[in-house]
Amino acid sequence: MAAKGEAFELTGIVRLIADRRIVAFDQESSDRLPGRGQVAVELSGACDTVTVVLDPDGRKGHWLSIDGSGPVDIDAEPGSKLAFTAQLCGSWPETEVPGDLSAALKDTPELDGTWAGLTPMARWEWVRWVGATKNPQTRQRRVEVSISKLLDGKRRPCCFDLSSCTDPEVAKGGKLIV
C-alpha cells in the first residue's frame, strides 16, 4: 500500500458499461490503495492533474469514470490500457449532492450545521449510500433514513459494505458488470 504523498502507478483497461466509459484498474494497482471502498487520489499522466474519488468494483478492486460525467474525460477505446500517476489525498474533494437528498437537507434546516460539519469523505458516503440503488422506493427510503440518522447525531450511514457500495449504472448487486 502506498503512503500519503508517495507517487505510485495505477493501470487499467478501458471498458464500456451501459454507455459509460470507465477504466477498471488491475488488481496490482488496487492493492496499492488503502481500502476496498472509495479512495481519494490525485491523478496525473493520462489526464490533467485532478483530485478524484475512485469507486470500488465489489471485487476488491477499483474503477474510475472517464467519460466526462465526473472530472475526468479521456477519449480512449474500450480494451485500451491507461496508466496514471497517483498520490493518496489527505483531503477529499467535495461531492455533488443529488437533488432529492439536497432538497431533504434544505427542508431540515436544523441539519445545516451537522451536514457542514461532516468531513467530505463522510458526505461522499451518505451520497453513495443514497445513490447505490436503482429502486426509486429504496432510494426515497434511504433519503428519509439519512435525515433521521443525521438528526439522531449519526455522522456516517452505518452498516453497509463500502467495498460493494458502487454506482448501480455500472454494477449489479454491488459488483462491477463484467
Structure description:
The chain is α+β, with helices and mostly antiparallel strands. It has two domains: 8-88, Elongation Factor Tu (Ef-tu), domain 3 (Beta Barrel), CATH 2.40.30; 94-169. It is 26% helix and 26% strand. It is built from five helices and eight strands; from the N terminus they run ββαββββααααββ. It has helices at 27-30, 99-106, 112-117, 120-131, 136-151, and strands at 8-17, 20-25, 39-45, 50-56, 62-65, 81-88, 171-172, 175-176. The strands form two sheets. It has a six-stranded antiparallel barrel. A two-stranded antiparallel ribbon has the order 7-8. A hairpin with a 2-residue loop joins strand 1 and strand 2. The longest helix is centred in the C-terminal third of the chain and has 16 residues, at 136-151. The radius of gyration is 16 Å and the shape is globular. The mean pLDDT is 92.
Q: Largest sheet, if any? A: 6 strands, antiparallel, barrel
Number of strands: 8
The helicity comes to: 25-40%
Number of helices: 5
The unreliable regions are none
Q: Name the structural class.
A: alpha+beta
Shape summary: globular
What's the alpha carbon Rg, rounded to whole Å?
16 Å
Q: How much β-strand is present in the residues?
A: 25-35%
Task: Assign the CATH class of the largest domain.
Answer: Mainly Beta
